[in-house]
Amino acid sequence: MKDRLLAAIRSELRARFDRLTKAAREAHAAATDPGSKAESKYDTRSLEASYLAAGQAKQVEDLARDIEIFESATLPEIGIEDAIDAGALVEVDLNDEPQWFLLAPAAGGVTLDHEGREITLLTPASALYQKLLGLHTGDSLDDPPLFVSEVL
């Protein structure tokens, strides 16, 4: 199952990369278009377009790095008795709602639908990632209030 999940993550990241690359090119074109030249000292369209283009270029770089990480990533099989660790797919009841999280090496915050589950990627920078580490099926936390239902 984790091999299929990795393939789905790679596919989702590539699709996002394609969309974001196109948007970054369009923002760059708008920033450098002669028609966006300031008409007065108060006209900031060109400046705003250049900030947008720079921000999107940074996002493209970050996404390219995430794709590279996932191209070589593997996810370990974690048994039902094992502690939650990097690569774990975890179902929790968070605020009385079931949610799935993958403790991933990159692309934190990305959510994808996979085999009937909505899975959110958590990275080590996430407080929830850190709180889940070491827990087992059946464990709970008070802050945030959650119960670990399943670990794969």
Number of separate domains: 2
What structural category do the secondary elements indicate? alpha+beta
What would you call the quaternary organization? single chain
Nearest-integer average pLDDT: 91
Distance between the termini: 9 Å
Order of helices and strands: HHEEEEHEE
Rg (C-alpha, Å) = 20 Å
The overall strand count is 6
Instruction: Please indicate the percent range of residues in DSSP E strands (runs of 2 or more).
Output: 15-25%
Shape: elongated
How many helices?
3
Largest sheet: 6 strands, mixed
Q: Order of strands across the biggest sheet?
A: 3-4-2-1-6-5
Could you name the ranges where pLDDT drops below 50 across 5 or more consecutive residues? none
Helix content: 40-55%
Quickly list its features.
152 residues; alpha+beta; 2 domains; 6-stranded mixed beta sheet; 3 helices; 42% helix; elongated
Record the SSE blueprint.
Elements (H helix, E strand, L loop, with lengths): L1 H31 L12 H27 L17 E6 L2 E7 L7 E4 L2 E6 L4 H6 L7 E2 L4 E6 L1
Parallel strand pairs: 2-4
Antiparallel strand pairs: 1-2, 1-6, 3-4, 5-6
Helix pairs in contact: 1-2
Folded structure, characterized:
By secondary structure, the protein is of the alpha+beta class. It is 42% helix and 20% strand. The chain folds into two domains: 2-71; 89-151, no CATH class. It is built from three helices and six strands, in the order ααββββαββ. The chain has a six-stranded mixed beta sheet with strand order 3-4-2-1-6-5. The mean pLDDT is 91.
